[in-house]
From TrEMBL:
The lineage of its organism: Bacteria, Pseudomonadati, Verrucomicrobiota, Verrucomicrobiia, Verrucomicrobiales. This is DNA-binding NarL/FixJ family response regulator. Residues 1-108 form the Response regulatory domain. GO terms for biological process: phosphorelay signal transduction system; regulation of DNA-templated transcription. Keywords: DNA-binding, Phosphoprotein. GO terms for molecular function: DNA binding. It comes from Prosthecobacter vanneervenii.
């Protein structure tokens, strides 16, 4: 539904650009591997950590790629983490189309854009992060595994989902414990629950390609 409504509007607003869409992170991965993008717009129903790995992957592939998140719900923790990792725009899905267009213009031109309620959550998190949030010590991959453990998933299951070996995931868990002091899976789950890090999943990704390499929009 998002694509059917938004793509024609954005194509009119940004003539000369080509839009490529994907319905999931899995579908987006090969696109990120074969194309360089000006902008990555991720539409999410909430936020677990895989969206972060996807954004970093896009930036590894094309350092100039900028990112905007569309969200219906986002905790102050994830707002702060997204901005810390270089996301330049976070817009609520209830905002008018004009705000999304404004956010895209701002980010493409090198600025930032946060919806008012998102900006408020960012300010709420600043005082906590300044006194030593242990999550700031984790790499994006470690944070991803931390949240997966918080959901109660076993290491073998996490390894399969992320395409890693169980040994590698176990090493990440050891490093998580060393950095944060949070050792058991039960304590990880408790921490995630208390800090609004659970119950969220990626929904849809919108990709915009540079004018130098026009591509047909994906179905």
């Amino acid at each position: 539904m998002f694509r059917e409504i938004m793509i024609p509007l954005l194509e009119r607003e940004f003539p000369g650009y080509t839009f490529i869409t994907a319905s999931s992170i899995k579908e987006a991965t090969p696109l990120l591997e074969h194309h360089a993008f000006d902008l990555l717009i991720t539409d999410i129903s909430g936020l677990e950590s895989p969206w972060l790995s996807m954004i970093l992957q896009a930036r590894d592939q094309s350092p100039g790629t900028k990112a905007i998140i569309l969200t219906s719900e986002m905790s102050s923790f994830w707002v702060h983490r997204a901005i810390r990792e270089g996301v330049l725009g976070i817009v609520t899905k209830t905002c008018p189309v004009s705000e999304l267009v404004c956010a895209i213009h701002s980010v493409v031109e090198g600025g930032k854009h946060l919806s008012p309620e998102i900006a408020q959550k960012f300010m709420q998190h600043i005082s906590y992060s300044q006194i030593g949030n242990p999550m700031n010590l984790l790499s994006p991959r470690e944070l991803e595994i931390f949240v997966q453990i918080g959901h109660g998933r076993r290491l073998k299951s996490i390894a399969k989902e992320l395409g890693l070996s169980p040994c590698t995931v176990a090493v990440h868990k050891h490093n998580i414990a060393r950095k944060t002091g949070i050792i058991t899976s039960a304590n990880i789950a408790r921490y995630c629950l208390e800090h609004g890090m659970l119950g969220l999943k990626p929904e849809q990704t919108l990709l915009r390609s540079p004018t130098a390499e026009p591509e047909a929009a994906a179905a």
